[in-house]
Structures are given as structure tokens and as C-alpha cells.
């Protein structure tokens, strides 16, 4: 392995965590520019996406894969600075899904995890694609096995994954695309993306009766659930025969009192999924499928990235605090581009 960059310094700026805790534990420090081996590239990072797992990792509540960088961040966009790949050359505009280290001026990535940025997208828009869109694609197509005509319930629908899932469900010709949130304004935005119906969840987390009214008692075929415990009982009450219920987050907790009879009677399957810890070949295949299926849809405007706010990376604490308010609609982005301006 080698660092082939012709730079005066092999040091870069990165975001670190002093100790598990709040956003005040984040700081900007120095790190060595990463090394690369065959079929890898070094990306000069222009923008990075902020994700819920970054907050959980900062808090010490997210198990980082053994080979992952201690530096936060799993998605970015930028320019190929150096390449030991046959797929990409220096100067190529790419976005990448990485196992860690994207909150940095430079990050190394396997070329299989990189995608060329469509000409009509900015670096900020591109940085909001890899983690949330590939996650949403995985959830709907590989885990939930979406079919034309499915009724789909999408919780936290105004999140990055939620906004992507709405559009992908529409692209797959789903029937009812039901979006939930606690914020009415967020749900109005979800309608512009393709949600056919929206439900504002109250403090008692009640939504099942409205879902069953919308579907005329037929329930939903797919549930995309990043909430977990607090929505568990209501989710059981909207399942139809052979519902595919995908839990991919635990924002509402992990402990539930489970009535197995309800699940058994309807043949409900509860499936769980994460992406970061998946093996190389799985992610390579997934990214390849996503690229072939969706990239031209970004180019022609069928699929749209949803960016809420862009923060200079020096304001990473503010970015994390903002995400924890749950006020964002779409992605929060860190901007690194000004670090490279003369």
C-alpha cells in the first residue's frame, strides 16, 4: 500500500470525537492522508453527508466495523486525486459510499464503491446520494422485495432515506405510498416527492386506524421502520397477509412486549437491515445495481436529491445539533470545498 499523492504535506484535516457524548465532543484535528492499494482511489472531498449513524457513533452507541476509520462519515462527493483503479482517473467527479472517514479532506475508497456524478448535480447534491439512496434501494428491492401495486408505509418519511424511498416506491409503481412524520410541513414536502397520503403522528404514536382507512382495511404490504419500539404495536395493526416489515433503525427504542400471535396469524415477516457492516461483495453488487437502475433517473430529473442545509465542515457541531432537533427535511451536508480554494 502506498500514498501516491504529490502533495507538500501528507497531513489532512479531519473531524474526530474526543470521547463519547454530545456534539461538543467533536473537534477538527490532523490525520495522515490515507493510503491506497490496487483498485482503490483517493478522493479530494468536496462535500460529505451527515447521517443518523454519525450521531450514534459520536455517542458511542454504534458498533463501527473492524476495518472502518475512527473518523466519522460514510458518504461523500469530490474529485479523484489519485487512482490505482482502471475505472477512474485523476480529476473524475465521483460520489462514494465509504466505511468511514468521509468527514475529512481526503478519503480512500474501493473503486467499486464510487459512482460518477451526473453532470446536472452539484457536489452538495451528490454527497446526499450514496448512503441514503443506496440504503433506500436496498430496503425496498433487496429486503422488502417491492412489487408493482404494493401498499407501502414509510415512517420518518422526511428523512434522507424516507425521501429517497418515496421516490423509489413511486418509480416501482406502488399503489398507496403512505408517509408519516410528526411535522405537517415536512409531510407537505413528501407529497411533492410522490407520497399519495400523509399522516401526522401524534404524541401517542397512533396511525394504524388512518392507514387502514386509507387502504380500505387492506393494510400495507411493506413497512419501512427506522423507529422501532414506540411504533411497534401500531405497525402490527396495519399488517396484511405476508407483510414485509423492515426495521432499519431504533430511534424509538429497542425493547418491546411482543405478541407473536398477531405476526403468526398474518404471516408477517420482520426483517432487519444495516448497510455499513455488509461485506465487500454485497455492497459492490448493490452499488452496481443501484447505478444501473437509478443514475439515469437522476440525470433526467425523475429522481431528485433532497438537501436541507449545507454547513461549512468547521461547523460540524452545529450540523449535528441541527440533526438532533429532527427539524431537517432531507439531507444535511458538510462542505469541504472552500478548504481547497486559493
UniProtKB/TrEMBL annotation:
Record SUPFAM superfamilies: GroES-like (SSF50129), NAD(P)-binding Rossmann-fold domains (SSF51735)
Gene Ontology molecular function, alphabetical: NADPH binding; oxidoreductase activity, acting on NAD(P)H
Record field: transmembrane: none
Enoyl reductase (ER) domain location: 21-334
Gene3D superfamilies: Medium-chain alcohol dehydrogenases, catalytic domain, NAD(P)-binding Rossmann-like Domain
Keywords, sorted A to Z: NADP, Oxidoreductase
One Pfam family per UniProt: ADH_zinc_N
NCBIfam families: quinone_pig3 (TIGR02824)
Protein's recorded name: Zinc binding alcohol dehydrogenase domain containing 2
